[in-house]
Amino acid sequence: MNPAQELFGDQQDDDHQQNYIHIRNQQRNGRKSLTIIQGLPKQFSSKKILKHFKKEFNCNGSITEDPEFGKVIMIQGDKRKLVGDFLVHEGIAEKDFVKASL
Protein backbone atom coordinates (compact mmCIF):
# COMPACT_ATOMS: atom_id res chain seq x y z
CA MET A 1 0.00 0.00 0.00
CA ASN A 2 1.20 3.49 -0.89
CA PRO A 3 2.39 5.48 2.20
CA ALA A 4 0.22 8.42 1.13
CA GLN A 5 -2.72 6.02 0.89
CA GLU A 6 -2.14 5.00 4.52
CA LEU A 7 -1.98 8.59 5.78
CA PHE A 8 -4.62 10.30 3.68
CA GLY A 9 -6.61 7.42 2.15
CA ASP A 10 -10.30 6.75 2.58
CA GLN A 11 -10.87 3.73 0.38
CA GLN A 12 -8.72 0.80 -0.69
CA ASP A 13 -9.12 1.58 -4.41
CA ASP A 14 -5.74 1.23 -6.14
CA ASP A 15 -6.91 1.16 -9.76
CA HIS A 16 -7.73 4.82 -10.26
CA GLN A 17 -7.47 7.04 -13.29
CA GLN A 18 -4.87 9.78 -12.87
CA ASN A 19 -6.36 13.24 -13.55
CA TYR A 20 -4.73 16.63 -13.36
CA ILE A 21 -4.70 18.42 -10.02
CA HIS A 22 -5.13 22.16 -10.51
CA ILE A 23 -3.67 24.58 -7.97
CA ARG A 24 -4.75 28.19 -8.47
CA ASN A 25 -4.42 31.48 -6.64
CA GLN A 26 -7.48 33.71 -6.33
CA GLN A 27 -6.80 37.32 -5.36
CA ARG A 28 -9.08 38.76 -2.71
CA ASN A 29 -8.94 42.32 -1.41
CA GLY A 30 -5.60 44.03 -0.93
CA ARG A 31 -2.77 41.56 -0.34
CA LYS A 32 -5.04 38.69 0.70
CA SER A 33 -5.49 35.63 -1.49
CA LEU A 34 -6.81 32.06 -1.55
CA THR A 35 -5.12 28.94 -2.87
CA ILE A 36 -7.64 26.64 -4.56
CA ILE A 37 -6.88 22.93 -5.07
CA GLN A 38 -9.19 20.88 -7.28
CA GLY A 39 -9.03 17.47 -8.90
CA LEU A 40 -7.64 15.43 -6.00
CA PRO A 41 -8.13 11.67 -6.46
CA LYS A 42 -11.26 10.42 -4.71
CA GLN A 43 -9.47 7.71 -2.72
CA PHE A 44 -7.70 10.38 -0.63
CA SER A 45 -9.55 12.06 2.22
CA SER A 46 -9.91 15.79 1.58
CA LYS A 47 -10.49 16.36 5.31
CA LYS A 48 -7.19 14.72 6.28
CA ILE A 49 -5.27 16.59 3.58
CA LEU A 50 -6.83 19.92 4.65
CA LYS A 51 -6.02 19.19 8.29
CA HIS A 52 -2.38 18.57 7.33
CA PHE A 53 -2.26 21.79 5.23
CA LYS A 54 -3.64 23.83 8.14
CA LYS A 55 -1.07 22.42 10.54
CA GLU A 56 1.90 22.46 8.15
CA PHE A 57 1.31 25.85 6.47
CA ASN A 58 -0.18 27.73 9.48
CA CYS A 59 -3.30 28.81 7.64
CA ASN A 60 -7.06 28.32 7.69
CA GLY A 61 -9.04 26.52 5.02
CA SER A 62 -12.27 24.85 3.99
CA ILE A 63 -13.70 22.22 1.66
CA THR A 64 -16.51 23.10 -0.73
CA GLU A 65 -18.50 20.86 -3.05
CA ASP A 66 -18.57 22.02 -6.67
CA PRO A 67 -20.98 20.31 -9.10
CA GLU A 68 -18.44 20.42 -11.93
CA PHE A 69 -15.13 19.84 -10.12
CA GLY A 70 -16.19 17.80 -7.07
CA LYS A 71 -14.51 18.58 -3.75
CA VAL A 72 -12.43 21.74 -3.80
CA ILE A 73 -9.97 22.66 -1.02
CA MET A 74 -9.47 26.38 -0.35
CA ILE A 75 -6.71 27.59 1.97
CA GLN A 76 -5.78 31.13 2.94
CA GLY A 77 -2.66 32.66 1.46
CA ASP A 78 -0.61 31.97 -1.65
CA LYS A 79 0.60 28.41 -0.99
CA ARG A 80 0.73 27.09 -4.59
CA LYS A 81 4.39 26.04 -4.49
CA LEU A 82 4.10 24.44 -1.04
CA VAL A 83 0.93 22.52 -1.95
CA GLY A 84 2.42 21.26 -5.23
CA ASP A 85 5.62 20.12 -3.52
CA PHE A 86 3.62 18.39 -0.78
CA LEU A 87 1.41 16.47 -3.22
CA VAL A 88 4.44 15.21 -5.16
CA HIS A 89 6.55 14.44 -2.06
CA GLU A 90 3.78 12.42 -0.38
CA GLY A 91 3.04 10.45 -3.55
CA ILE A 92 -0.52 11.72 -3.90
CA ALA A 93 0.21 12.88 -7.46
CA GLU A 94 3.03 12.71 -9.96
CA LYS A 95 4.81 15.93 -10.87
CA ASP A 96 3.47 15.79 -14.45
CA PHE A 97 -0.14 15.73 -13.20
CA VAL A 98 0.12 18.75 -10.87
CA LYS A 99 -0.70 22.00 -12.65
CA ALA A 100 0.14 25.00 -10.49
CA SER A 101 -0.48 28.37 -12.11
CA LEU A 102 2.54 30.33 -10.87
From TrEMBL:
Source superkingdom: Eukaryota
Recorded GO MF terms: translation initiation factor activity
Protein name (database record): Translation initiation factor SUI1, putative
PANTHER family assigned: EUKARYOTIC TRANSLATION INITIATION FACTOR SUI1
Family: Belongs to the SUI1 family.
Stored Pfam families: SUI1
Entries under Gene3D superfamilies matching the protein: SUI1-like domain
SUI1 domain mapped to chain residues: 21-91
Keywords: Initiation factor, Protein biosynthesis
